[in-house]
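B., you asked whether I could sanity-check this one before it goes into the benchmark set. Here's the sequence:
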Amino acid sequence: MDHRWRPSVTVAAVIERDGRFLMIEEETSEGLRINNPAGHLDPGETPAEGCAREAMEETAWHFVPTHLLGVYISRFQRSTTGEDITYLRFAFTGELGDHVPDRPLDVGIVRTLWMTPDELRATAERHRSPLVLRCLEDYLAGVRHPLSSVYCDPSIRGPGHERDPVTGDGEGR
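And here's what the prediction gave me:
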């Protein structure tokens, strides 16, 4: 039996436009919750790529990560099952692109919201995670790290992709 601890790796987008933040309202096992556009990192993608994908899937907005906001860890126990989960979150900020209004949102996403910092602070009890507010506060404090802070070895792409196809070297992008 495997008893090795494995945190769930997630990615999240902190997207600001005109003093408001793009959030989602989603159905969860704990009820209706507010979250950043966020989700699990998929095999073969970098955290920045996963963040852009999740933003599109959950909000129908194009998003290009330009900075790492931070790496966060939290623990959660489901009240319905007692399941104990640790989340390791890579949060990014960046540039909001075009909206794709006809694109359906992921299953479970009820709607998108544009919320002010005060509205987000006032609804903390409805947040999916304590990291929602922490990421907001870090963003507002001006925290920004270069994307290169997260090294992604080309081997994450799978067999045959260990070398960069442009430079031929083994360094990540």
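One thing to flag: Residues 47-59 form the longest helix (13 residues). Otherwise nothing jumped out at me.
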